[in-house]
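User: I want to check something. If I give you two sequences, will you return the structure for each one separately, not as a complex?

Assistant: Yes, each is folded on its own. Here is the first sequence with its structure:
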Amino acid sequence: MYVYILTNPTKTVLYIGITNDLTRRLYEHSSGRGDAGKFTGRYQADLLVYFELCQDATQAIAREKQLKGWTRSKKNALITAFNPEWQLIDLETWSG
Protein backbone atom coordinates (compact mmCIF):
# COMPACT_ATOMS: atom_id res chain seq x y z
CA MET A 1 0.00 0.00 0.00
CA TYR A 2 1.12 3.53 -0.75
CA VAL A 3 0.45 6.90 0.79
CA TYR A 4 0.97 9.65 -1.74
CA ILE A 5 0.77 13.42 -2.11
CA LEU A 6 -0.29 15.20 -5.26
CA THR A 7 -0.11 18.89 -6.04
CA ASN A 8 -1.27 21.18 -8.83
CA PRO A 9 0.94 23.02 -11.35
CA THR A 10 1.23 26.10 -9.10
CA LYS A 11 1.88 23.96 -5.99
CA THR A 12 -0.89 25.70 -4.05
CA VAL A 13 -2.96 22.59 -3.30
CA LEU A 14 -2.02 19.28 -1.69
CA TYR A 15 -4.03 16.07 -1.98
CA ILE A 16 -3.17 13.07 0.22
CA GLY A 17 -4.41 9.60 -0.66
CA ILE A 18 -3.72 5.88 -0.38
CA THR A 19 -3.74 3.10 -2.95
CA ASN A 20 -2.50 -0.41 -3.54
CA ASP A 21 -1.55 0.43 -7.16
CA LEU A 22 0.10 3.84 -7.48
CA THR A 23 0.49 3.74 -11.26
CA ARG A 24 -3.21 2.97 -11.77
CA ARG A 25 -4.30 5.58 -9.25
CA LEU A 26 -2.19 8.31 -10.85
CA TYR A 27 -3.75 7.47 -14.21
CA GLU A 28 -7.21 7.76 -12.65
CA HIS A 29 -6.37 11.16 -11.19
CA SER A 30 -4.99 12.47 -14.49
CA SER A 31 -8.02 11.14 -16.36
CA GLY A 32 -10.30 13.19 -14.12
CA ARG A 33 -8.41 16.45 -14.67
CA GLY A 34 -10.91 19.27 -14.81
CA ASP A 35 -13.74 17.19 -13.31
CA ALA A 36 -15.32 19.80 -11.03
CA GLY A 37 -17.05 17.11 -8.99
CA LYS A 38 -13.77 15.77 -7.61
CA PHE A 39 -11.16 17.56 -5.54
CA THR A 40 -8.21 16.57 -7.73
CA GLY A 41 -10.09 17.54 -10.89
CA ARG A 42 -11.38 20.83 -9.55
CA TYR A 43 -7.92 21.90 -8.39
CA GLN A 44 -5.94 20.08 -11.11
CA ALA A 45 -3.99 18.24 -8.39
CA ASP A 46 -2.56 15.33 -10.34
CA LEU A 47 1.20 15.83 -10.02
CA LEU A 48 2.93 13.28 -7.79
CA VAL A 49 5.51 14.91 -5.50
CA TYR A 50 5.70 12.42 -2.62
CA PHE A 51 4.95 8.78 -1.84
CA GLU A 52 5.83 6.16 0.71
CA LEU A 53 5.28 2.43 0.93
CA CYS A 54 3.32 1.02 3.87
CA GLN A 55 3.19 -2.60 5.03
CA ASP A 56 -0.57 -2.93 4.85
CA ALA A 57 -3.85 -1.04 4.52
CA THR A 58 -4.17 -0.40 8.26
CA GLN A 59 -0.76 1.27 8.37
CA ALA A 60 -1.50 3.26 5.19
CA ILE A 61 -4.82 4.55 6.53
CA ALA A 62 -3.20 5.57 9.82
CA ARG A 63 -0.39 7.38 8.00
CA GLU A 64 -2.84 9.13 5.65
CA LYS A 65 -4.85 10.40 8.65
CA GLN A 66 -1.65 11.52 10.35
CA LEU A 67 -0.47 13.48 7.30
CA LYS A 68 -3.89 15.05 6.76
CA GLY A 69 -3.73 16.35 10.34
CA TRP A 70 -0.42 18.11 9.79
CA THR A 71 -0.03 21.80 9.07
CA ARG A 72 0.78 22.86 5.53
CA SER A 73 4.31 23.83 6.58
CA LYS A 74 4.96 20.38 8.05
CA LYS A 75 3.66 18.71 4.86
CA ASN A 76 5.87 21.02 2.78
CA ALA A 77 8.91 20.04 4.86
CA LEU A 78 8.14 16.33 4.38
CA ILE A 79 7.86 16.75 0.60
CA THR A 80 11.00 18.89 0.43
CA ALA A 81 13.04 16.32 2.39
CA PHE A 82 11.94 13.61 -0.06
CA ASN A 83 11.85 15.68 -3.26
CA PRO A 84 13.79 18.95 -2.73
CA GLU A 85 12.77 20.58 -6.03
CA TRP A 86 9.17 19.32 -5.87
CA GLN A 87 9.71 17.78 -9.28
CA LEU A 88 6.99 15.68 -10.85
CA ILE A 89 7.78 12.08 -9.94
CA ASP A 90 7.73 9.66 -12.85
CA LEU A 91 7.54 6.22 -11.25
CA GLU A 92 9.41 4.61 -14.15
CA THR A 93 12.47 6.85 -13.82
CA TRP A 94 12.39 8.05 -10.18
CA SER A 95 15.59 7.23 -8.35
CA GLY A 96 14.65 9.16 -5.21
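And separately, the second sequence with its own structure:
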Amino acid sequence: MTFPDNFLWGGATAANQCEGAYLADGKGLSIADAMPGGKDRFKKLFSPDFDWTIDESRNYYPNHFGIDHYNRYEEDIALFAEMGFKCYRFSIAWTRIFPKGTEAEPNERGLAFYEKVIDTCLHYHIEPVVTISHYEMPLYLAKEFGGWQDRQLIDHYTRYARVLLERFGDKVTYWMTFNEINGALHFPALSLGMVPKTGAGNKQLVFQGLHHQFVASSLVVKMARELNPELQIGMMTIYATGYAFDCHPANQVANMEKNQEVNGFCCEVQAGGAYPPYTQRLFDKYGVQPLTMAPEDEQLLKEYPVDYIGLSYYMSTTIDVVDPEAAKVAGNLTGGIKNPYLETSEWGWQTDAAGLRIGLNELYQRFHKPLFVVENGLGAVDVLTEDKTVHDDYRINYLAEHITEMGKAIADGVNLIGYTPWGCIDLVSASTGEMSKRYGFIYVDKDDEGNGTYDRYRKDSFYWYQQVIASNGSDLTMPEKK
Protein backbone atom coordinates (compact mmCIF):
# COMPACT_ATOMS: atom_id res chain seq x y z
CA MET A 1 0.00 0.00 0.00
CA THR A 2 1.19 3.50 -0.78
CA PHE A 3 -0.36 6.51 0.88
CA PRO A 4 0.37 10.01 -0.48
CA ASP A 5 3.35 11.78 1.10
CA ASN A 6 1.10 14.56 2.36
CA PHE A 7 -1.58 12.21 3.75
CA LEU A 8 -3.21 13.67 6.87
CA TRP A 9 -2.92 11.06 9.61
CA GLY A 10 -4.54 12.17 12.85
CA GLY A 11 -7.48 11.70 15.19
CA ALA A 12 -10.89 13.18 15.91
CA THR A 13 -12.90 14.45 18.89
CA ALA A 14 -15.92 16.68 19.49
CA ALA A 15 -16.12 19.61 21.88
CA ASN A 16 -19.26 18.46 23.66
CA GLN A 17 -17.85 14.98 24.30
CA CYS A 18 -14.44 15.90 25.64
CA GLU A 19 -14.15 19.50 26.83
CA GLY A 20 -16.36 19.56 29.92
CA ALA A 21 -16.30 22.97 31.68
CA TYR A 22 -19.84 23.36 30.40
CA LEU A 23 -20.43 26.78 31.95
CA ALA A 24 -16.86 28.09 32.03
CA ASP A 25 -15.84 31.50 30.72
CA GLY A 26 -19.28 32.56 29.56
CA LYS A 27 -20.28 29.38 27.75
CA GLY A 28 -24.04 28.86 27.34
CA LEU A 29 -26.00 25.63 27.49
CA SER A 30 -26.06 23.41 24.41
CA ILE A 31 -28.37 20.55 23.48
CA ALA A 32 -25.57 18.15 24.44
CA ASP A 33 -25.66 19.57 27.96
CA ALA A 34 -29.32 18.51 28.21
CA MET A 35 -28.76 14.91 27.05
CA PRO A 36 -28.83 12.38 29.91
CA GLY A 37 -26.19 9.68 30.06
CA GLY A 38 -26.82 5.95 29.87
CA LYS A 39 -27.70 3.25 27.36
CA ASP A 40 -31.25 4.60 27.15
CA ARG A 41 -30.13 8.09 26.07
CA PHE A 42 -31.76 7.83 22.64
CA LYS A 43 -34.87 6.30 24.15
CA LYS A 44 -35.24 9.39 26.35
CA LEU A 45 -34.58 11.76 23.46
CA PHE A 46 -37.27 10.03 21.42
CA SER A 47 -39.83 9.99 24.24
CA PRO A 48 -42.90 12.23 23.66
CA ASP A 49 -42.43 14.17 26.90
CA PHE A 50 -38.74 15.08 26.48
CA ASP A 51 -38.44 18.88 26.34
CA TRP A 52 -34.71 19.56 26.89
CA THR A 53 -35.21 20.19 30.62
CA ILE A 54 -32.07 19.52 32.66
CA ASP A 55 -33.02 17.64 35.83
CA GLU A 56 -29.92 16.64 37.78
CA SER A 57 -32.04 15.04 40.50
CA ARG A 58 -33.09 12.35 38.01
CA ASN A 59 -30.28 12.19 35.46
CA TYR A 60 -26.51 12.33 35.17
CA TYR A 61 -25.19 14.58 32.42
CA PRO A 62 -21.71 13.34 31.44
CA ASN A 63 -21.15 16.00 28.77
CA HIS A 64 -21.00 18.62 31.55
CA PHE A 65 -17.60 17.27 32.50
CA GLY A 66 -16.38 15.34 29.45
CA ILE A 67 -12.75 14.36 30.03
CA ASP A 68 -11.75 17.88 31.16
CA HIS A 69 -10.07 18.57 27.83
CA TYR A 70 -10.89 22.26 28.37
CA ASN A 71 -8.22 22.36 31.08
CA ARG A 72 -5.98 19.59 29.72
CA TYR A 73 -5.87 20.35 25.99
CA GLU A 74 -2.12 21.10 26.10
CA GLU A 75 -1.39 17.70 27.67
CA ASP A 76 -3.69 15.95 25.20
CA ILE A 77 -2.32 17.64 22.09
CA ALA A 78 1.23 16.88 23.27
CA LEU A 79 0.22 13.20 23.37
CA PHE A 80 -1.21 13.50 19.85
CA ALA A 81 2.10 15.01 18.74
CA GLU A 82 3.97 12.12 20.38
CA MET A 83 1.97 9.76 18.15
CA GLY A 84 3.01 11.86 15.18
CA PHE A 85 -0.35 13.37 14.24
CA LYS A 86 -0.31 15.38 11.02
CA CYS A 87 -3.78 16.76 11.77
CA TYR A 88 -6.32 16.94 14.58
CA ARG A 89 -10.02 17.11 13.86
CA PHE A 90 -11.96 18.86 16.62
CA SER A 91 -15.09 20.95 16.85
CA ILE A 92 -15.82 24.38 18.23
CA ALA A 93 -18.63 24.65 20.76
CA TRP A 94 -21.12 27.12 19.28
CA THR A 95 -22.19 28.13 22.80
CA ARG A 96 -18.67 29.17 23.77
CA ILE A 97 -18.84 31.78 21.01
CA PHE A 98 -22.55 32.69 21.12
CA PRO A 99 -24.01 31.38 24.42
CA LYS A 100 -27.65 31.59 23.30
CA GLY A 101 -26.98 31.71 19.58
CA THR A 102 -28.79 35.00 19.05
CA GLU A 103 -26.25 37.51 20.40
CA ALA A 104 -24.92 40.24 18.15
CA GLU A 105 -21.36 40.00 19.46
CA PRO A 106 -19.29 36.90 20.20
CA ASN A 107 -17.87 35.85 23.56
CA GLU A 108 -14.19 36.78 23.43
CA ARG A 109 -13.23 34.30 26.16
CA GLY A 110 -14.51 31.46 24.01
CA LEU A 111 -12.60 32.66 20.98
CA ALA A 112 -9.45 33.04 23.08
CA PHE A 113 -9.72 29.42 24.21
CA TYR A 114 -9.86 28.08 20.66
CA GLU A 115 -7.04 30.42 19.63
CA LYS A 116 -4.90 28.64 22.24
CA VAL A 117 -6.02 25.19 21.04
CA ILE A 118 -5.22 26.04 17.43
CA ASP A 119 -1.88 27.61 18.32
CA THR A 120 -0.94 24.54 20.36
CA CYS A 121 -1.68 22.35 17.34
CA LEU A 122 0.42 24.56 15.08
CA HIS A 123 3.27 24.53 17.61
CA TYR A 124 3.47 20.78 17.05
CA HIS A 125 3.00 21.13 13.27
CA ILE A 126 -0.45 19.56 13.53
CA GLU A 127 -2.98 20.78 10.96
CA PRO A 128 -6.27 21.80 12.66
CA VAL A 129 -9.39 20.37 10.99
CA VAL A 130 -12.39 22.17 12.45
CA THR A 131 -16.04 21.13 12.54
CA ILE A 132 -18.17 24.26 12.96
CA SER A 133 -21.18 22.47 14.48
CA HIS A 134 -20.95 18.96 15.97
CA TYR A 135 -24.18 17.92 17.68
CA GLU A 136 -24.14 20.83 20.16
CA MET A 137 -26.24 23.73 18.87
CA PRO A 138 -27.31 26.29 21.50
CA LEU A 139 -30.07 24.95 23.73
CA TYR A 140 -31.89 28.27 23.43
CA LEU A 141 -32.24 27.82 19.66
CA ALA A 142 -33.63 24.31 20.13
CA LYS A 143 -36.16 25.37 22.76
CA GLU A 144 -37.25 28.75 21.42
CA PHE A 145 -37.07 28.11 17.66
CA GLY A 146 -37.67 24.36 17.51
CA GLY A 147 -34.18 23.84 16.08
CA TRP A 148 -33.32 23.95 12.39
CA GLN A 149 -36.92 23.79 11.18
CA ASP A 150 -36.90 27.59 11.64
CA ARG A 151 -35.20 29.47 8.81
CA GLN A 152 -33.95 32.12 11.23
CA LEU A 153 -31.26 29.66 12.28
CA ILE A 154 -29.49 30.23 8.96
CA ASP A 155 -28.65 33.79 10.01
CA HIS A 156 -27.61 32.79 13.52
CA TYR A 157 -25.37 30.01 12.22
CA THR A 158 -23.74 32.03 9.45
CA ARG A 159 -23.03 34.89 11.86
CA TYR A 160 -21.26 32.36 14.09
CA ALA A 161 -19.39 30.81 11.14
CA ARG A 162 -18.23 34.20 9.89
CA VAL A 163 -16.70 34.99 13.27
CA LEU A 164 -14.74 31.72 13.15
CA LEU A 165 -13.54 32.15 9.57
CA GLU A 166 -12.50 35.74 10.12
CA ARG A 167 -10.72 34.95 13.39
CA PHE A 168 -9.03 31.67 12.44
CA GLY A 169 -9.05 31.58 8.65
CA ASP A 170 -5.34 32.41 8.48
CA LYS A 171 -4.52 29.41 10.70
CA VAL A 172 -7.10 26.77 9.76
CA THR A 173 -7.45 25.56 6.16
CA TYR A 174 -9.85 22.60 6.56
CA TRP A 175 -13.39 23.17 7.83
CA MET A 176 -16.60 21.15 7.93
CA THR A 177 -19.97 22.85 8.27
CA PHE A 178 -22.08 20.18 10.03
CA ASN A 179 -21.21 16.85 11.59
CA GLU A 180 -22.99 13.85 10.06
CA ILE A 181 -25.63 16.01 8.42
CA ASN A 182 -27.63 12.99 7.22
CA GLY A 183 -28.07 11.96 10.84
CA ALA A 184 -31.13 14.24 10.72
CA LEU A 185 -33.03 11.36 9.09
CA HIS A 186 -32.31 9.00 11.99
CA PHE A 187 -31.70 11.08 15.13
CA PRO A 188 -32.89 14.66 14.51
CA ALA A 189 -32.33 15.62 18.16
CA LEU A 190 -28.55 15.61 17.68
CA SER A 191 -28.42 16.98 14.15
CA LEU A 192 -31.36 19.39 14.01
CA GLY A 193 -32.10 20.07 17.67
CA MET A 194 -35.61 18.64 17.19
CA VAL A 195 -37.36 16.25 19.60
CA PRO A 196 -40.87 14.78 19.31
CA LYS A 197 -42.40 17.77 21.10
CA THR A 198 -40.93 20.08 18.45
CA GLY A 199 -41.60 17.95 15.37
CA ALA A 200 -38.86 15.32 15.22
CA GLY A 201 -41.42 12.77 14.04
CA ASN A 202 -42.65 15.01 11.25
CA LYS A 203 -40.61 14.31 8.12
CA GLN A 204 -41.89 17.53 6.54
CA LEU A 205 -40.16 19.52 9.29
CA VAL A 206 -37.08 17.30 9.23
CA PHE A 207 -36.50 17.81 5.51
CA GLN A 208 -37.24 21.51 5.90
CA GLY A 209 -34.60 21.66 8.63
CA LEU A 210 -32.13 19.86 6.38
CA HIS A 211 -32.80 22.38 3.62
CA HIS A 212 -31.97 25.22 5.99
CA GLN A 213 -28.69 23.49 6.84
CA PHE A 214 -27.92 23.01 3.14
CA VAL A 215 -28.45 26.72 2.53
CA ALA A 216 -26.38 27.67 5.58
CA SER A 217 -23.54 25.42 4.40
CA SER A 218 -23.50 26.98 0.92
CA LEU A 219 -23.47 30.44 2.47
CA VAL A 220 -20.39 29.44 4.45
CA VAL A 221 -18.70 28.20 1.25
CA LYS A 222 -19.55 31.55 -0.39
CA MET A 223 -18.22 33.42 2.63
CA ALA A 224 -14.98 31.44 2.60
CA ARG A 225 -14.43 32.08 -1.12
CA GLU A 226 -14.72 35.81 -0.46
CA LEU A 227 -12.49 35.79 2.63
CA ASN A 228 -9.76 33.44 1.43
CA PRO A 229 -10.01 31.23 -1.69
CA GLU A 230 -7.47 28.83 -0.15
CA LEU A 231 -9.92 27.75 2.55
CA GLN A 232 -11.35 24.25 2.10
CA ILE A 233 -14.96 23.85 3.23
CA GLY A 234 -16.21 20.29 3.50
CA MET A 235 -19.41 18.49 4.35
CA MET A 236 -19.54 15.51 6.71
CA THR A 237 -21.81 12.51 6.32
CA ILE A 238 -22.44 9.12 7.89
CA TYR A 239 -21.59 6.56 5.23
CA ALA A 240 -22.96 3.05 5.67
CA THR A 241 -22.22 0.97 2.59
CA GLY A 242 -25.39 -0.92 1.65
CA TYR A 243 -25.89 -4.52 0.58
CA ALA A 244 -28.94 -6.44 -0.56
CA PHE A 245 -29.20 -9.64 1.47
CA ASP A 246 -29.47 -11.70 -1.70
CA CYS A 247 -30.08 -11.35 -5.43
CA HIS A 248 -33.87 -11.16 -5.10
CA PRO A 249 -34.86 -8.14 -7.25
CA ALA A 250 -37.00 -6.71 -4.43
CA ASN A 251 -33.96 -6.64 -2.14
CA GLN A 252 -31.81 -5.12 -4.87
CA VAL A 253 -34.34 -2.33 -5.38
CA ALA A 254 -34.71 -1.78 -1.64
CA ASN A 255 -30.93 -1.51 -1.29
CA MET A 256 -30.75 1.01 -4.14
CA GLU A 257 -33.42 3.16 -2.52
CA LYS A 258 -31.84 2.90 0.93
CA ASN A 259 -28.45 3.94 -0.45
CA GLN A 260 -29.99 6.91 -2.18
CA GLU A 261 -31.72 8.05 0.99
CA VAL A 262 -28.95 7.39 3.53
CA ASN A 263 -25.73 7.77 1.56
CA GLY A 264 -26.74 9.86 -1.43
CA PHE A 265 -29.32 12.53 -0.68
CA CYS A 266 -27.28 14.97 1.43
CA CYS A 267 -24.14 14.42 -0.66
CA GLU A 268 -26.07 15.16 -3.86
CA VAL A 269 -27.16 18.54 -2.49
CA GLN A 270 -23.97 19.59 -0.74
CA ALA A 271 -21.37 18.12 -3.09
CA GLY A 272 -23.41 17.88 -6.28
CA GLY A 273 -25.10 21.25 -5.91
CA ALA A 274 -28.73 20.20 -6.48
CA TYR A 275 -31.51 18.05 -5.16
CA PRO A 276 -31.22 14.62 -6.82
CA PRO A 277 -33.70 13.27 -9.41
CA TYR A 278 -35.16 10.80 -6.90
CA THR A 279 -36.15 13.56 -4.45
CA GLN A 280 -39.83 13.43 -5.36
CA ARG A 281 -39.99 9.68 -4.84
CA LEU A 282 -38.28 10.09 -1.47
CA PHE A 283 -40.68 12.87 -0.46
CA ASP A 284 -43.65 10.78 -1.59
CA LYS A 285 -42.45 7.94 0.63
CA TYR A 286 -42.73 10.18 3.69
CA GLY A 287 -45.65 12.33 2.57
CA VAL A 288 -43.46 15.43 2.29
CA GLN A 289 -44.91 18.36 0.35
CA PRO A 290 -42.69 20.80 -1.61
CA LEU A 291 -40.30 22.51 0.77
CA THR A 292 -40.45 26.22 1.50
CA MET A 293 -37.52 27.85 -0.28
CA ALA A 294 -36.32 31.37 -0.90
CA PRO A 295 -36.06 32.30 -4.61
CA GLU A 296 -32.26 32.28 -4.49
CA ASP A 297 -31.78 28.99 -2.60
CA GLU A 298 -31.36 26.59 -5.52
CA GLN A 299 -28.92 28.87 -7.32
CA LEU A 300 -26.92 29.24 -4.12
CA LEU A 301 -26.67 25.46 -3.71
CA LYS A 302 -25.57 25.13 -7.32
CA GLU A 303 -22.88 27.82 -7.18
CA TYR A 304 -21.38 26.94 -3.80
CA PRO A 305 -21.00 23.17 -3.28
CA VAL A 306 -18.43 21.92 -0.78
CA ASP A 307 -14.77 21.38 -1.66
CA TYR A 308 -14.44 17.91 -0.15
CA ILE A 309 -16.49 15.18 1.51
CA GLY A 310 -15.73 14.11 5.05
CA LEU A 311 -17.31 10.88 6.21
CA SER A 312 -17.71 8.69 9.25
CA TYR A 313 -17.58 4.97 8.58
CA TYR A 314 -18.33 2.40 11.26
CA MET A 315 -20.48 -0.25 9.60
CA SER A 316 -22.32 -1.42 6.52
CA THR A 317 -26.06 -2.07 6.23
CA THR A 318 -27.78 -5.17 4.87
CA ILE A 319 -31.35 -5.00 3.55
CA ASP A 320 -33.93 -7.77 3.31
CA VAL A 321 -37.52 -6.76 2.54
CA VAL A 322 -38.53 -10.25 1.37
CA ASP A 323 -38.18 -12.10 4.68
CA PRO A 324 -40.20 -10.40 7.45
CA GLU A 325 -38.53 -12.68 10.02
CA ALA A 326 -34.99 -11.56 9.18
CA ALA A 327 -33.06 -10.75 12.35
CA LYS A 328 -32.52 -7.03 12.90
CA VAL A 329 -29.25 -5.49 14.13
CA ALA A 330 -30.21 -2.99 16.81
CA GLY A 331 -26.79 -1.36 16.96
CA ASN A 332 -26.60 -0.34 13.31
CA LEU A 333 -27.26 3.39 13.19
CA THR A 334 -29.13 3.30 9.89
CA GLY A 335 -31.02 0.06 10.48
CA GLY A 336 -30.82 -3.19 8.55
CA ILE A 337 -30.61 -6.89 9.32
CA LYS A 338 -27.84 -9.14 10.56
CA ASN A 339 -25.17 -9.89 7.98
CA PRO A 340 -24.01 -13.46 8.72
CA TYR A 341 -20.54 -12.74 7.32
CA LEU A 342 -19.70 -9.91 9.73
CA GLU A 343 -18.65 -9.73 13.36
CA THR A 344 -20.60 -7.63 15.86
CA SER A 345 -19.10 -5.28 18.46
CA GLU A 346 -20.04 -5.18 22.14
CA TRP A 347 -22.53 -2.44 21.28
CA GLY A 348 -24.16 -4.35 18.42
CA TRP A 349 -22.35 -2.61 15.56
CA GLN A 350 -21.44 -4.92 12.67
CA THR A 351 -17.93 -4.16 11.46
CA ASP A 352 -17.02 -4.39 7.80
CA ALA A 353 -13.63 -3.10 6.65
CA ALA A 354 -14.16 -4.03 2.98
CA GLY A 355 -17.29 -1.90 3.01
CA LEU A 356 -15.09 1.17 3.54
CA ARG A 357 -13.24 0.53 0.28
CA ILE A 358 -16.57 0.06 -1.51
CA GLY A 359 -18.00 3.24 0.00
CA LEU A 360 -14.96 5.34 -0.88
CA ASN A 361 -15.16 4.13 -4.47
CA GLU A 362 -18.88 4.86 -4.65
CA LEU A 363 -18.45 8.40 -3.36
CA TYR A 364 -15.46 9.27 -5.49
CA GLN A 365 -16.86 7.84 -8.69
CA ARG A 366 -20.02 9.89 -8.18
CA PHE A 367 -18.63 13.25 -7.08
CA HIS A 368 -14.91 13.33 -8.02
CA LYS A 369 -14.14 15.39 -4.93
CA PRO A 370 -11.41 14.71 -2.37
CA LEU A 371 -12.54 12.39 0.43
CA PHE A 372 -11.52 12.50 4.08
CA VAL A 373 -12.31 9.68 6.51
CA VAL A 374 -12.84 11.81 9.60
CA GLU A 375 -14.37 9.13 11.85
CA ASN A 376 -13.77 5.39 12.12
CA GLY A 377 -13.14 3.25 15.14
CA LEU A 378 -14.13 0.49 17.53
CA GLY A 379 -16.04 1.23 20.72
CA ALA A 380 -15.05 -1.40 23.29
CA VAL A 381 -14.65 -2.06 27.00
CA ASP A 382 -10.98 -1.55 27.86
CA VAL A 383 -9.27 -2.88 30.99
CA LEU A 384 -6.52 -0.79 32.55
CA THR A 385 -3.80 -3.12 33.82
CA GLU A 386 -1.83 -2.77 37.04
CA ASP A 387 1.04 -1.24 35.09
CA LYS A 388 -1.35 1.39 33.68
CA THR A 389 -1.78 0.31 30.10
CA VAL A 390 -4.45 -1.32 27.95
CA HIS A 391 -3.75 -4.34 25.75
CA ASP A 392 -6.19 -3.50 22.95
CA ASP A 393 -5.16 -5.85 20.15
CA TYR A 394 -8.82 -5.94 19.09
CA ARG A 395 -8.69 -2.21 18.33
CA ILE A 396 -5.39 -2.51 16.49
CA ASN A 397 -6.78 -5.32 14.34
CA TYR A 398 -9.93 -3.34 13.56
CA LEU A 399 -8.05 -0.21 12.52
CA ALA A 400 -5.40 -2.15 10.57
CA GLU A 401 -8.11 -3.82 8.52
CA HIS A 402 -9.73 -0.47 7.70
CA ILE A 403 -6.42 1.21 6.86
CA THR A 404 -5.64 -1.70 4.53
CA GLU A 405 -8.93 -1.11 2.71
CA MET A 406 -8.24 2.62 2.48
CA GLY A 407 -4.92 1.78 0.83
CA LYS A 408 -6.76 -0.39 -1.68
CA ALA A 409 -9.20 2.47 -2.38
CA ILE A 410 -6.26 4.78 -3.08
CA ALA A 411 -4.88 2.14 -5.46
CA ASP A 412 -8.32 2.16 -7.10
CA GLY A 413 -7.75 5.84 -7.88
CA VAL A 414 -9.71 7.40 -5.02
CA ASN A 415 -8.39 10.81 -3.92
CA LEU A 416 -8.29 10.21 -0.16
CA ILE A 417 -6.60 13.03 1.72
CA GLY A 418 -6.66 11.92 5.34
CA TYR A 419 -7.73 9.66 8.17
CA THR A 420 -8.74 10.71 11.69
CA PRO A 421 -9.93 7.74 13.77
CA TRP A 422 -12.76 8.61 16.12
CA GLY A 423 -12.14 9.28 19.77
CA CYS A 424 -8.35 9.30 19.52
CA ILE A 425 -8.55 9.87 23.27
CA ASP A 426 -11.34 8.25 25.30
CA LEU A 427 -14.38 10.53 25.54
CA VAL A 428 -18.10 10.52 26.30
CA SER A 429 -20.10 8.44 23.81
CA ALA A 430 -22.60 10.44 21.76
CA SER A 431 -25.12 7.62 21.49
CA THR A 432 -25.11 6.50 25.13
CA GLY A 433 -23.21 9.08 27.16
CA GLU A 434 -20.99 6.29 28.50
CA MET A 435 -17.27 6.37 29.17
CA SER A 436 -17.09 2.57 29.15
CA LYS A 437 -17.57 2.62 25.37
CA ARG A 438 -13.98 3.56 24.59
CA TYR A 439 -12.40 4.32 21.22
CA GLY A 440 -9.12 6.00 22.04
CA PHE A 441 -5.41 5.37 21.79
CA ILE A 442 -5.24 7.11 25.18
CA TYR A 443 -7.10 5.79 28.22
CA VAL A 444 -8.80 8.35 30.45
CA ASP A 445 -9.39 7.28 34.05
CA LYS A 446 -13.08 8.10 34.35
CA ASP A 447 -16.09 5.80 34.69
CA ASP A 448 -19.71 6.06 33.58
CA GLU A 449 -20.67 7.90 36.79
CA GLY A 450 -17.90 10.47 36.43
CA ASN A 451 -15.59 8.95 39.04
CA GLY A 452 -11.86 8.77 38.48
CA THR A 453 -8.63 10.73 38.41
CA TYR A 454 -9.00 11.78 34.74
CA ASP A 455 -5.35 10.81 34.30
CA ARG A 456 -4.22 9.77 30.81
CA TYR A 457 -2.47 6.50 29.94
CA ARG A 458 -1.07 5.23 26.65
CA LYS A 459 -2.68 2.02 25.31
CA ASP A 460 -0.88 -0.53 23.14
CA SER A 461 -2.71 1.03 20.18
CA PHE A 462 -0.95 4.34 20.96
CA TYR A 463 2.42 2.86 20.02
CA TRP A 464 0.93 0.95 17.10
CA TYR A 465 -0.59 4.11 15.57
CA GLN A 466 2.67 5.95 16.19
CA GLN A 467 4.35 3.30 14.04
CA VAL A 468 1.62 3.50 11.37
CA ILE A 469 2.07 7.24 11.00
CA ALA A 470 5.86 7.06 11.03
CA SER A 471 5.73 4.51 8.20
CA ASN A 472 3.02 6.47 6.32
CA GLY A 473 0.71 3.50 6.56
CA SER A 474 3.16 0.89 5.27
CA ASP A 475 3.76 -0.89 8.61
CA LEU A 476 0.57 -2.19 10.24
CA THR A 477 2.24 -4.95 12.22
CA MET A 478 1.82 -5.30 15.96
CA PRO A 479 4.59 -3.37 17.71
CA GLU A 480 6.64 -4.76 20.52
CA LYS A 481 4.78 -4.35 23.82
CA LYS A 482 5.89 -1.28 25.80
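Because they were folded independently, the notes below concern the second chain alone. The chain has a mean pLDDT of 96. Residues 8-470 form a domain with the TIM Barrel fold (CATH 3.20.20.80).
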